[in-house]
Structures are given as structure tokens and as C-alpha cells.
Design a protein that fits this description.
The complex is a heterodimer of chains A (327) and B (303).
Chain A: H1 2-29, H2 34-42, H3 48-58, H4 64-76, H5 90-125, H6 130-144, H7 147-160, H8 178-221, H9 224-231, H10 236-254, H11 260-265, H12 268-273, H13 279-288, H14 292-320
Helix pairs in contact in A: 1-14, 5-6, 5-8, 5-14, 6-8, 7-8, 8-10, 9-10, 13-14
Chain B: H1 4-35, H2 37-54, H3 56-59, H4 92-127, H5 132-146, H6 149-159, H7 164-174, H8 177-190, H9 194-201, H10 206-242, H11 254-263, H12 270-297
Helix pairs in contact in B: 1-12, 2-4, 2-12, 4-5, 4-7, 4-8, 4-10, 4-12, 5-8, 6-7, 8-10, 9-10, 10-11, 10-12, 11-12
Classes of the chains: A mainly alpha (327), B mainly alpha (303).
């Protein structure tokens, strides 16, 4: 196991380097560097020599491999660079946006798992019942519905009809703070703003998870050991919740490892629609503004977490299923 | 000893047997597919949608971008404007019909790109499995897969001008690694099968082994993945268009219509709702067909 882990970790590094190299190269191909974006925002009739000076100052005139080497050299030292556009360290931008994304994505993860697992189980146990048909039907619809469209439906039918009680923009009401209003008001205010983005995201991830849980449970119910448990004369409840469930729940819990990167990556579309100042939003803005350093930092973070997620899934599999061995 | 002389008759006989088997197998797959109501329903709706897209010039009540400023913001159900008009007085139904041309072709073209590259990539890597060729090729595929999809899409879109053709190309070019991984896995297992080994022993060339023996047996999962890939291609274009980085006016696509409708949600919600519904129906039908194909092609995989 230790040997396997070291091997896997050693494999991660070249992969990350390759992925960041590809992304770096594609980004640099984009016409118009960050200097154009900044100057266009400030003064269209800017002196062209100022552009040249900025490029030189930022090292954008160096060959691409030199720029990449400089970037990765700094990253190893813990320096993620400086945002051209916001004129402050990239680390500051990320640490500001990350809590906002996490606030949303952690709740989404917890909610969608705690809803999907029981629904999937019931659906499988009562296969071909009206409950099962409804669940499968809604899951199919949910997987086919574009998330931005679901968001618009909610904005129209819930937020607009609520007459402004349910906000569709931002993360908190201006001026609501812990000191004057107390934690209950702050919490309620936050929840109010989370309601719509949360609903869209939970619905989106719920549908896939429910189908997955259902099919996993159906498979286990067909297994020999389930039949054995029944043949022993165990109560149906014990068969399902003790024997079958333990086996059926493994794959669905382990796939959560694959979601580690989406947890911090946020959703570009949802964060854009609801003006949620998270990682998805800043990475979208960074790509548009050619803010290379911010883009690369987000990318690296997502890449590392994806790989770590895969690794965790592998380790958990070995721990929970003695039939699997890695050498 | 001269083997080639005895080699040929065996192969000819083998071929006739194989084609007979193909026929009955195809028929069995067809029968199983037709028994699946959701899949047949999905396929019928899709055929209808594609016919509408092809014959859009004859079917659309109004020409593309025809507008009548005296008939702005008409609600759905107005005579002559079944799905209403938008803030400029354009007929929503007509625009959905015109938009279907881009939305529906994006799926197919990006799928062909992604499966073409992915299958070739995975086939070569899988056939030479374990060698440095395989390792190098799969490392590249994994590295691209590591970059979040939307990040990759918007980055590449910002490099090229977001023309319709570029969008299709980009979606195809960014989504092949998972197909490559699927095909490689198939090849790794199929190249060890007895029939592949037997054919190799008879002196078959690499390309004959790949195209005649391995690829046809790997076809089922590739076909299923391709069907679902069409749906995800349509979804990707619509999301990009929603973010304003996809189809640009005067061209029209469903995602772009939803994006435009978003600005007028309070006044004319139908301009955003109906195109979104069109996306939902299309993707739903492709998913039905994909699931139906999976069950029909391999009854053992049925869930």
C-alpha cells in the first residue's frame, strides 16, 4: 500500500505540470494581453509606449517557456503571483472568494447526499412502484434540464412572486452585521441569499446521485448474499438496512471523492447568475480579463484537488473492500 | 513452411460466418431497442426535431430575425404567434425553429470530433498498452481531463473568435479524453482475447487486428458514449451561449435565446422559458436513446 501510494503521488506531479503547461499555453494564445484589458478600462487613448512598458514590467515579452518556468518556480516557493487586473496578490483574491464558494458547495454536498441516499433506497426497494416511477422520471428530467434555465424558473416563479423577499443577487444584505443584529439575523440573512443558488445546485447534483444510489441498491438486492440473508429468515428490514445497504452505499460515498474539486471550483454559471462572489465567478472574470495568474492559481487548485480526490477514493476502496488490493 | 496459402480459405470462411452472426445480432439489438418505450419515444421525437431543423425555411412562420415593432411582447397563445413575441417583436416559435439548426448540429459535429479523436487516441494507446507510447498518450489525455471543462471551454473560446463552427470544434476538441480512456480500456481487454490472439498467430497485421477484430467488438460502449456525448455537446453550447461566449447574433441558438430572455424575465418570461424547454426535451430524448441503446447492445449491462 505504501509503495502504491508513493507511486501514485509521484505520478501526480508530472500530470499537474503537464496540465498547467497546456492551460498556460492555451491562455497565452489568446489575443490581447492583460495590459490591453486594464488600459481599455481606464483610458482608451493611452500612450502605446505605456503598454510596452507594462508588458516589459510584467515579463510578458519573455518567451512562453521562460514565463512558465518563472510561474512554477514561484509556485513552489508558495508565491502565486500578482493579479494584473486587481493589482493585489492572487492569494488574497482566492482566500476572499473561497469561503463564499465553500459556504454554498458544502451545504449542497451534505443536502444532496442526505436526500439522494434515502430516496434512492426506497426507489430501489419499491422498484416499479409509483414512487419509483416518479423518482426516476424527475431524475431524468433533472439531468436534462440546463441548470441556468432551472435558475431562471426559480427567479421568475419564486423570487419575483415573493415580491423581493427572496433575493437573487449577492451573498448578504449590506449593513447586516453580527454586532448590531446578532447571529440569528445574520444566519437568516445568509440563508435567504443562499436559498435559490442552493436549490438549483442541490437539484442538479441530486438527480444523478439518486439514480446512482438506486441502481447500486438494485444490484446489491440481486446478489447471492442478499438472497442468503432472506433465506436465513431475517426480517426484510434487517436484510435491506443491514446487509444490502452497507454494500450499496459504498460506491456512492466513494464517488464523493471525485467531487472534491467541484467543492472549491464552484459553478461558473450559478455564481454568475446569482452574482455570488466565489471561485467560479473569479475564474470566469480572470479568463475574460486575461488575468493569467488568477486563472493559473484556480486551475492548479482544482487540479490538485481532483487528483487528491481520486487518491482518496482509491484508498477508501481498499479500506472498505478487502477484495481490492493494490500493489 | 509456407503458411499464407492455407491462411486465405480460413479467413474467407471466417468472414462469412462473422457476417451471418452480425446480421442476427443486429436484428436482436433492434428488437430489444424497439421494446424499450422510452427509447423509441426519444428517437421519434428526435427524428421529428431534426426534420424541423432541416426544413426550417419552410416550417418557420417568420424569416430569421424578422421583427415587427408594433407586435412587441405578445404573450404565448396570441393568434399568429403561438409562443409569443420578444421585446423586439420577433416571433419566439420561429426563432426556436431557426435556433434548432445550430443547437442540434452542435451535438453531432462536436460528437464526431470528440469520438474521432478520442477513439483513435484510445485505440492506439490501448493496442500498444503498457508501452511508452501508451503511457505518453494517456498522460496527455489525463492532463487535459484534469482541467475543469468550463474553464477549458471559456479559455479556448477566448482564444478563437466564437463563431458557430469554432464553438462546435472547441467542444469536440476539449471533450475527447474521456472517450480515449474508454476505448483504451476496451482495447486492453480485447487484445488479449482468444480470437485476437488467434488472428495474430495467423499473421494478421496490426491495422487488420485493430480495425477488423478489436474495434467492432469495442463498438457497443463507444456507440452508447457517443449518443450521450451528443447531449452533452448540446448542453455545452447552450451554457457557453448563455454566458455570452457561444453563438453570437445574428445567428441564433437556444442557449443564446435563454440568455437574452434573462434580461427581460419580468416582462416576457416566455422568451427564456420555451427555448430552455426545447433544450430539455432534446437532451432528455438523447438520454433515453442512449440508455435504450446500452440496454439493447448489452443485455448484461441492463440495470
Amino acid at each position: 500500500m505504501a509503495r502504491y501510494l508513493t507511486k501514485r503521488l509521484m505520478n501526480m506531479i508530472p500530470l499537474l505540470i503537464l496540465a498547467t503547461m497546456i492551460a498556460f499555453a492555451i491562455m497565452q494564445l489568446a489575443p490581447g494581453g492583460p495590459e490591453n484589458m486594464i488600459l481599455a478600462g481606464e483610458d482608451a487613448s493611452i500612450d502605446p509606449s505605456a503598454l510596452v512598458a507594462l508588458r516589459e514590467q510584467w515579463g510578458l515579452n519573455d518567451p512562453i517557456h521562460v514565463q512558465y518556468a518563472r510561474w512554477i518556480g514561484n509556485v513552489v516557493k508558495g508565491d502565486f503571483g500578482y493579479s494584473y487586473f486587481q493589482r493585489r496578490p492572487v492569494v488574497d483574491i482566492i482566500t476572499e472568494a473561497l469561503p463564499n464558494t465553500l459556504q454554498l458547495s458544502i451545504v449542497v454536498l451534505l443536502l444532496s447526499y442526505s436526500i439522494a441516499i434515502p430516496i434512492g433506497i426506497i426507489s430501489a426497494v419499491k422498484q416499479y412502484s409509483w414512487f419509483d416511477y416518479t423518482v426516476t422520471g424527475v431524475a431524468f428530467l433533472g439531468q436534462a434540464a440546463p441548470n441556468y434555465w432551472v435558475a431562471l424558473l426559480l427567479i421568475y416563479y419564486v423570487a419575483m412572486k415573493s415580491g423581493g423577499t427572496i433575493p437573487t443577487n449577492g451573498i448578504t444584505t449590506q449593513g447586516i452585521n453580527l454586532e448590531t443584529y446578532g447571529w440569528i439575523s445574520v444566519l437568516l440573512d445568509r440563508l435567504k441569499y443562499m436559498l435559490l443558488p442552493l436549490s438549483v445546485m442541490v437539484f442538479g447534483s441530486l438527480t444523478g446521485l439518486t439514480r446512482y444510489m438506486r441502481s447500486s441498491m438494485l444490484e446489491v438486492l440481486k446478489e447471492d448474499y442478499t438472497r442468503t440473508a432472506r433465506a436465513k429468515g431475517l426480517a426484510e428490514k434487517v436484510v435491506i438496512y443491514k446487509h444490502a445497504l452497507r454494500n450499496a452505499i459504498l460506491p456512492i460515498v466513494t464517488v464523493s471523492g471525485y467531487q472534491l474539486s467541484t467543492l472549491v471550483g464552484g459553478s461558473v454559471i450559478i455564481e454568475t447568475i446569482f452574482s455570488w462572489p466565489g471561485i467560479g465567478r473569479i475564474s470566469f472574470d480572470a479568463v475574460n480579463a486575461r488575468d493569467y495568474m488568477v486563472s493559473m492559481a484556480v486551475l492548479l487548485m482544482a487540479g490538485v484537488l481532483t487528483l487528491v480526490g481520486f487518491l482518496i477514493v482509491d484508498i477508501v476502496y481498499v479500506m472498505v473492500d478487502p477484495r481490492i488490493k493494490y500493489d | 513452411m509456407a503458411v499464407p496459402e492455407t491462411n486465405n480459405p480460413v479467413e474467407v470462411k471466417d468472414r462469412s460466418l462473422a457476417s451471418q452472426k452480425d446480421d442476427s445480432q443486429l436484428r436482436a439489438v433492434g428488437r430489444r431497442f424497439l421494446r424499450n418505450k422510452a427509447a423509441v419515444f426519444g428517437l421519434s421525437v428526435l427524428v421529428l426535431l431534426y426534420l424541423v431543423a432541416i426544413f426550417a425555411p419552410y416550417l418557420a412562420p417568420f424569416p430569421l430575425d424578422f421583427l415587427d415593432v408594433t407586435l412587441r411582447k405578445l404573450p404565448p397563445g396570441t393568434p399568429g404567434h403561438l409562443l409569443g413575441t420578444d421585446h423586439l417583436g420577433r416571433d419566439v416559435l420561429s426563432r426556436i425553429i431557426w435556433g434548432s439548426r445550430i443547437s442540434l448540429s452542435v451535438g453531432f459535429i462536436s460528437m464526431f470530433m470528440s469520438v474521432g479523436i478520442g477513439a483513435t487516441w484510445g485505440a492506439i494507446a490501448g493496442y500498444y498498452g503498457g508501452s511508452w507510447v501508451d503511457i505518453a498518450m494517456m498522460r496527455v489525455a489525463e492532463a487535459i481531463d484534469l482541467i475543469p471543462v468550463y474553464f477549458l471551454l471559456i479559455t479556448v473560446v477566448s482564444v478563437f473568435r466564437p463563431s458557430i463552427f469554432n464553438i462546435m470544434l472547441i467542444i469536440g476538441l476539449t471533450s475527447w479524453p474521456s472517450i480515449a480512456q474508454l476505448v483504451r480500456g476496451q482495447f486492453l481487454s480485447l487484445r488479449e482475447r482468444d480470437y485476437t490472439q488467434a488472428s495474430r498467430a495467423l499473421g494478421a497485421t496490426d491495422s487488420r487486428l485493430i480495425f477488423r477484430h478489436i474495434l467492432p467488438n469495442a463498438a457497443a460502449p463507444i456507440i452508447v458514449a457517443s449518443t450521450l456525448r451528443i447531449a452533452s455537446g448540446i448542453m455545452a453550447e447552450s451554457s457557453l451561449s448563455f454566458l455570452g461566449m457561444g453563438t453570437q447574433p445574428p445567428a441564433v441558438s437556444w442557449g443564446q435565446m435563454v440568455s437574452l430572455g434573462r434580461s427581460f424575465l419580468r416582462d416576457t418570461p416566455w422568451t427564456a422559458m420555451y427555448p430552455g424547454l426545447a433544450i430539455l426535451i432534446t437532451v432528455l430524448c438523447f438520454n433515453f436513446v442512449g440508455d435504450g441503446l446500452r440496454d439493447a447492445l448489452d443485455p448484461k449491462m441492463k440495470r
